[in-house]
Amino acid sequence: MTGHVLEFLGETKRELGPVGTAEGHWRTGRDAAGVLWLVLDKQDTSTNTISEDVIRELDSHITAAEADLPAAVVIRSAKDAGFAAGADIASFEAMTDDGAVKLLKQAHDVLDRIAALTCPTICIVHGAALGAGFELALACDYRITVAGASFGFPEVQLGLHPGLGGTFRLPALIGATDAMTMMLTGKTAHTKRAKSQGLADVIVEERHAAAAVAAVVDGKIDKHAPSIASRAFGLDQARSLAARQMRKETEKKAPQQHYPAPHALIDLWEDHGDDPDAMQKAEIESFATLLKSDTSQNLRRVFFLRQKLKDAGRGDDDIAHVHVIGAGAMGTEIAAAAAIKGKIVTLGDVETAPLGRAIKKVVQICKDKHLTGIETRDALDRLMPDPKGYGLARADLVIEAATETQDLKEKIYKGLEGKLKKGAILATNTSSLSIDDLAAFAPTQDDFAGLHFFNPVSRIDLVEVIKGTATSDKTAQRLAAFCGAIGKLPVTVANYPGFVVNRALVPYMLEAMVLMDEGVSKEVIDTAALRFGMPMGPVALADQVGLDVGLHVAESLSTSLDKPMPPISDDLRAKVKDGKLGKKSGTGFYDWSDGTPRPDADLDDAPADLTDRLILPMLNACVEILREGVVETEDQIDGAMIFATGWAPFRGGPMHYARTRGINEVTEALKALERDHGPRFAPDEGWSSLA
Amino acid sequence: MTTHQKQRVFLVDGARTPFLKARSGPGPFTPVDLAVQCGRPLLARQPFDRAALDLVILGCVNVIADEMNPARVASLRLGLPEETVAFSTQINCGSGMQSLDTAYRYIQSGSHQMILAGGAEALSHAPLTLRSSAVEWFGRMNAAKGPMDQAKAMAGIRPDFFKPVVGLERGLTDPITTLSMGQTAEILAHRFRIDRNTADTYAMQSHHRLADAQNDGRLDDEVMPAFDRDGTVYDHDDGVRPDSDMEGLAKPKPVFEPPYGQVTAGNSSQITDGASWCILASQKAVDLHGLEPLAEITDSEWAGLDPSIMGLGPVLASTPILQRHNMAKDDVDLWELNEAFAAQVLSCLAAWNDDDFCREVLGYDAAFGRIDRDKLNVDGGAISLGHPVGTSGNRIVLHLAKAMKQRGAKRGIATECIGGGLGGAMLLEAVV
């Protein structure tokens, strides 16, 4: 609702007690009841993070409170964005030497003193309280939770575990089982769950926050009592047993070799779970160690890569209505993504049956995203199946997601002549055709571009915005902003065979098929890739993408690139001919009836250069993409590969991996492969300018 | 009396859902769901923005608890601005026409320029309600304090409390005369000597005409496919029986007054879910947005009569219009007379063709004349399509406008009988 009356009335004012203007990052004041309000309002940013400065200033405010004990202390945030997003990740870089331990100890000391205050300490949480922000909330006696708030420890995603007391304060509050699950998975607990777990003492609307504080001060709200069941974990044997189970589960998702942090956390808990003081000391040491690990450094890099892509998607897209042509799998998912994020969507198809199936699929996507009944209804209301194409004339953006043939797309574009709104963008979701070739048939060339989503759209965040030769800057910018508006990460690329992601991935999949022809089993091949850290082996990936789609892209790349590609295997052609298309038809190279195959083969007899044969052609393609100016920076390539394919994130992306391993070493390895297996491995000339 | 310059009112476009026969249990759509299903494509094909609509009016008889004031719920779900006022109308089977008539008069008065007026009904969702004795018992249970009191209250429970009252059945029974709607048709059949064979013949034609209209694409711009959450697509009025014949129609027994009655399930309207919208606009709005009206609405009328003969409502409501405009039988090119029951439609025709009736009741000198079957309900009616009560009045006006355009007709009347003893009628004229 955006009516002018509500707009005039504005948002509910946040209850900040009697605080004055900011002195540093905090605003403070004591109210008539003697309650001290400490309001975090970090300077020069819209989101609070717990930086060194924030802690230092908090230290002095707590010192003052110790000297003149208030009736209670309230800690909250003044920001619309929520309580606090966690530690200042950028500052981690400066902390990777031994100074980390010292800084951590200082911060721990401040939180320990909050916990030790003899007056009630109350944290009011609205929005997200993450990482160090969550830990600050945990140091308080009470958490008053404004509806919509959430708590979480996303540290594992950065190769870390909680480092500001979370490892011992959270289990003490909600029990070890729930606490370890939260810390190991990084999943957030939303308001309701936070209440049932005991993180939240009360849930209130913002307009009743002050009344809730008064209720705490008057002793009308009971403190959450830690669960009795978790006392069993005071016994070493019980913890050891549970830890073994946790390690087993964790190893499946995050092997220790690549992701040490969750395993370190389990060790901490097993060793010190019955002794908070020992746990605190060990947490500080372990956190400082992890901070220096390659995994954490690379995962922090991934965090910033995401931020950069997100930044590229900011701005006004000036797109209210999207018309999608083609209710196939991609068209449906694109339509769903846009409708869920508030766009008016018309989904066009000449037949009504696929439109019916599309609606069913959208219902499923809403369910998978845990949308409420009302949210689902609204998304479905915004998404209109449009067999007559009424939406074309109203749309600000038309996304063509028809079958991948040049002829069909040409025909569709010709049919759009004179039908689109002035200034409307026409974008194609093609994965293999040339944007410049298609542009010739678009109603207006400067309003035409590629918008390449990946399957499944609901799970893959990256979108390639392909700026053809004739595409205007404004069109490319609006498309990037559109991606941002529907929660996707755009990377703007030039027109090039396979764009970025498919150009790099196709050799990976084709090489796997050559290896199979040589007699190496698909399980061995995929295991090698998984152990390198790829989320899926190349053979399983080909099956997932669909062998017909893969073959089409491979053929298109093989003909349009100057470079030799691995030969397309006869087996692949035969499978496509027989209709064994992979996951979607039930079988391809694998049988998919039992879900996604995750082979774990013995690699003792595997060819020594197996992993390099799979991985290095991707790096080689990335260097070619960079040299050809398809993207501007190595970071864009790394971001694209990680967020489109899940490319070993703990390695920081293919270009970062190449730099870590050494440009010369990679070039030499490619030369060796070229000698042994042919010219398709010849290092790209672009390597020389990187060294 | 002050006379204001009356604004001309145009019906510029309209669309409806397929009418879906109520089968076992509630259908896939609520009244507002249906209104959204057909409202979206209708609005999507307009050259103007949703904000150009001044008002939303929706007729609905069986409002469900989650959709109080269905017009407002539909308006917001269709993405109209929150500033746009929306209200619902209820005059039983006339609700969807009442919405149009209200819109017509508002625009005529100059207070509004463009109005979305519709009807929506999901008879398959008609509520089951608890008996009032059960509601009282439930209240006592809730008020009971302490276990003793509760036990005492509990003891008052009777098995028939849980025998629900079928809302639909009650809704189709006249509350004044306690006659069912079917019985009022039996009364007319008896008075006007409509026999079973004539009624069945009429019903068969209704099915054949609808089937022809569907096959020839005459409903393509009118009926918008509806899509449910299971992926099912509803793209046509599914009560139609293209192969309907006299042998089949002879089989069903009289439902309302067995064993000697005339009215059967086969020659009555069907129980259906469906919604319909029309957009009415002033000359100013037509010019501003460059609209191409289907027809102009030039008159409307409502009439009341004894509830037991409510089926004659169309005669009572249409005649004053005919008389005001000095229109003889041949001056009306097309008629949409809602087919509540074949016997009821045929009784209306018989009344207009009866010298005594026309003289004594309608004030004519002689019979108005027999309305030509070729001008009446040319593309079928509620017997083949179904009769979602709050929607039908809207549908007949919409279809009349479309059919007039398709056939180059100059003048047409859409009229309906209304349970409770009322009738409604609208006069449409081609835009020249």
UniProtKB/TrEMBL annotation, chain A:
It catalyses: a (3S)-3-hydroxyacyl-CoA + NAD(+) = a 3-oxoacyl-CoA + NADH + H(+). GO terms for molecular function: enoyl-CoA hydratase activity; isomerase activity; long-chain (3S)-3-hydroxyacyl-CoA dehydrogenase (NAD+) activity; NAD+ binding. Residues 321-494 form the 3-hydroxyacyl-CoA dehydrogenase NAD binding domain. Keywords: Fatty acid metabolism, Isomerase, Lipid degradation, Lipid metabolism, Lyase, Multifunctional enzyme, NAD, Oxidoreductase. GO terms for biological process: fatty acid beta-oxidation. Pfam families: 3HCDH, 3HCDH_N, ECH_1. It comes from the Bacteria. Residues 498-592 form the 3-hydroxyacyl-CoA dehydrogenase C-terminal domain. Pathway: Lipid metabolism; fatty acid beta-oxidation. Its EC number is 4.2.1.17. InterPro entries: 3-OHacyl-CoA_DH_CS, 3-OHacyl-CoA_DH_NAD-bd, 3HC_DH_C, 6-PGluconate_DH-like_C_sf, ClpP/crotonase-like_dom_sf, Enoyl-CoA_hydra/iso, FA_oxidation_alpha_subunit, NAD(P)-bd_dom_sf. In the central section; belongs to the 3-hydroxyacyl-CoA dehydrogenase family. This is enoyl-CoA hydratase. It comes from Yoonia ponticola. The lineage of its organism: Bacteria, Pseudomonadati, Pseudomonadota, Alphaproteobacteria, Rhodobacterales.
TrEMBL record, chain B:
The keyword Transferase applies. GO terms for molecular function: acetyl-CoA C-acetyltransferase activity. CDD domains: thiolase. Keywords: Acyltransferase, Transferase. InterPro entries: Thiolase, Thiolase-like, Thiolase_C, Thiolase_CS, Thiolase_N. PROSITE patterns: THIOLASE_2 (PS00737). Residues 292-429 form the Thiolase C-terminal domain. Residues 9-283 form the Thiolase N-terminal domain. Its EC number is 2.3.1.9. The keyword Mitochondrion does not apply. It comes from the Bacteria. This is Acetyl-CoA C-acetyltransferase. It comes from Yoonia ponticola.
